[in-house]
Structure formats: structure tokens, C-alpha cells
Specification:
6-stranded mixed sheet; alpha/beta; 15 strands; 9-stranded mixed sheet
Length: 356
């Protein structure tokens, strides 16, 4: 199959709520407290009990299994988590596109737990889902579930993060993490003149996003001997841990030219720590994903830039690929969305597109 290159677009970030028991996302109003892939503030209004949520989720799945439409056309999306703008945007785009194609799409939240995701996939297969889209928590850990799904005759699309055995699935849709990382680091090198100390905020260690973006960082840094990685640590995609980590770095007393975060949520946390230390502008901050929060921070002068990776396009194209497979059509083995870099010069345009 030929690889397919598609230009990234920004999608409308819509609110998605979740049930906390079996983590099946519904149209209710409760939200779960999870580790983030790009962290957002937790919903302080969670007031439903775990038992009630479990019962509600089980009831919804039972009702779905009895629905005539869903029996004929069942699809499911398995997300690493559903607690921030990136994952909400991607999942909403997938759900909307699936509906356009005539398919109902259930969304599952793994709460960044690989075993939880494996159990959810097994449950969905048991309920008769015919096509699944997976954003893997673990690039290795999800492979047995993918193979089990294929053995059960279920079509499998991997989205956003690659798995270690890509041939186990039907196809992959997403950005190339290494390319995203290298393109961002190239911008950083331009801004700091190819010298100085940089600090890196990483995603969950071993995740495809962290591994790929780190690989991209390293590829570029290898060409700049006058740049030193003074600090690096994982903030698990979350804002608050990033803030604390950067506060500690600043207290260490070492000069830092730039903080490069592997997503916008961590970049926002870094920017807050830097602002509190009255070093905004002195230390440049960079992110990935071009979320509305990240773009606004760019416009406010808190972030130097953010690299988009086609969030809504990933969801849309993944749903299209899954629908095509269910319709008996051939699909490309890979659909790669391109990157767009946003600075103060073009961030407003992107933010306006999200608001529409």
C-alpha cells in the first residue's frame, strides 16, 4: 500500500463526558479523573459514585447491544484517556465522522492503564463490535488485544500512537512522532542560536509519543554540539507536574535557554513556573498539539510556539478508514497527517478555526 500524506487541520474541541465505572464515554455529564496525554484541569464537580457509574455504563452497553442499528453497524474507539482537549478533539472528530458514514461509535477511556484498555477491547469484541480504533496506552501491551480482535474477525485501526507490531492491525492513522519532534526542535535551535541549555518535558516513558518525539529531538540536537540538555523529566502529559518539575529546575540555579515540552499542557505548566519566577521571555517555552490553550499561551507571549499534529484530522481519517474496512474497501496501510508550526504570527487564525 502507498503511504498517504494529508495536511493537518484543526478541529472543533467539543466537550465529551465519561462514565467512571467501565470507562465507556457517554453523553452524560460526569467526568473521570485520569492521567493525561495532554492534561487538563480535573472536573471538580464529579459527584456520582463508582458503583452508580458502573451500573450506568453497564446499562448503556446493554442497551447498545440491543439496538438494531448498533447490531448491524458497531464501531468502538479506545482512547488512552479522555481528560484534555487533544483527546476530546480527536475522539469527537472520530465520532462525528462515523455518524456521517452511518456508524455508531462508542468511546472508551483507558485511564492510561494498559490492562484496562485490554479488558475494554475484549469486552467490546464480546459485545459484537465489528470495527475498532485504538489509541494505544502501551505500544507493546496492546498487540495481543489487536491480534485477538483480528482473529475474531474485527477490523483494527491504530490512531495517533504506533504499535510495536504494525502488521497486526489493518492500518495506522496519525502524525509521525519523530518528525513532529525534529521539526519542533529545529524551530527551537533557530530561536536560541544553536547554543545554550535546554530542558525537556517528556510524555509517559515508553509511550509512542514520548519515544518518537524524543527520537526527533535527539536527531536535531546531535547537530548542535553547543547545546546541552540540562534537565529532562516526564510530567506524564500533565500541567501540574510540569509546573512543579520546572520550579525545581529553576531553583537549581542553572541557566536555561528553552524548555521544550512534548505537549501543550506540559508547556503551559512550564510557562506558569517561569512566569512565577519572573523569567517570561528570558526562557523560551515550546509545546506540541496546537490546542486552544497552547495557542492562547502563544498569543499571550507565554509560549514561543506549538507544533500541530492534525488532531481532528487524525480522528476523522481513522473513522473513515474503519468505515471503509467495514464497507469492504481497501485502505492505505498508513495515513500520515502533516505538521504545522504556530507562533504569534499565525496562532490567532488557528484559534479562530477552533472556535468556529
Amino acid at each position: 500500500m502507498f503511504k498517504k500524506l494529508l495536511v493537518a487541520g484543526l478541529g472543533l474541541a467539543m466537550t465529551v463526558s465519561m462514565m467512571t465505572g467501565c470507562s465507556l464515554v457517554s453523553d452524560g455529564s460526569s467526568s473521570s479523573d485520569t492521567k493525561t496525554e495532554e492534561s487538563a484541569a480535573a472536573d471538580s464537580s464529579e459527584d456520582s459514585s463508582e458503583a452508580d457509574s458502573t451500573a450506568d455504563a453497564s446499562k448503556e452497553e446493554s442497551e447498545d447491544a440491543g439496538s438494531g442499528d448498533l447490531i448491524e453497524k458497531k464501531m468502538a474507539l479506545f482512547m488512552t484517556h479522555m481528560s484534555n482537549e487533544f483527546t476530546v478533539t480527536l475522539s469527537n472528530a472520530a465520532k462525528d465522522e462515523a455518524a456521517e458514514r452511518g456508524y455508531a461509535l462508542n468511546i472508551y477511556d483507558a485511564n492510561q492503564d494498559a490492562q484496562n484498555q485490554a479488558d475494554q477491547i475484549e469486552q467490546a469484541i464480546t459485545l459484537g463490535v465489528e470495527g475498532i480504533i485504538i489509541e494505544p496506552v502501551s505500544v507493546d501491551g496492546v498487540v495481543p488485544s489487536v491480534k485477538a480482535a483480528k482473529e475474531a474477525g474485527v477490523n483494527v485501526v491504530i490512531v495517533n500512537q504506533r504499535i510495536s507490531d504494525p502488521e497486526a492491525a489493518d492500518c495506522y492513522v496519525g502524525a509521525d512522532a519523530a518528525t513532529t519532534g525534529s521539526k519542533l526542535m529545529e524551530e527551537v535551535m533557530k530561536d536560541i542560536g544553536g547554543k545554550g541549555n535546554v530542558a525537556l518535558l517528556l510524555g509517559p516513558m515508553g509511550s509512542d509519543g514520548q519515544v518518537g518525539r524524543s527520537e526527533g529531538f535527539d536527531q536535531v540536537l546531535a547537530d548542535y554540539p553547543d547545546v546541552t540538555v540540562a534537565f529532562q523529566d516526564t510530567a506524564e502529559w500533565q500541567t501540574e507536574p510540569a509546573l512543579t518539575i520546572v520550579e525545581n529546575w529553576l531553583n537549581a540555579g542553572k541557566d536555561i535557554s528553552a524548555v521544550v515540552a512534548q505537549n501543550d499542557s506540559m508547556a503551559v505548566g512550564a510557562a506558569k513556573a517561569i512566569a512565577d519566577a519572573q523569567k517570561t521571555g528570558e526562557i523560551k517555552v515550546y509545546g506540541i498539539d496546537a490546542t486552544s490553550e497552547g495557542l492562547q499561551a502563544v498569543l499571550d507571549g507565554k509560549l514561543q510556539g506549538t507544533m500541530a499534529q492534525g488532531t481532528s484530522d487524525q480522528g476523522k481519517f481513522a473513522a473513515d478508514a474503519c468505515a471503509d474496512l467495514l464497507d469492504g474497501k481497501e485502505v492505505d496501510s498508513e495515513t500520515i497527517v502533516d505538521n504545522v508550526y504556530y507562533t504569534a504570527d499565525n496562532a490567532q487564525e488557528a484559534l479562530d478555526a477552533i472556535a468556529k
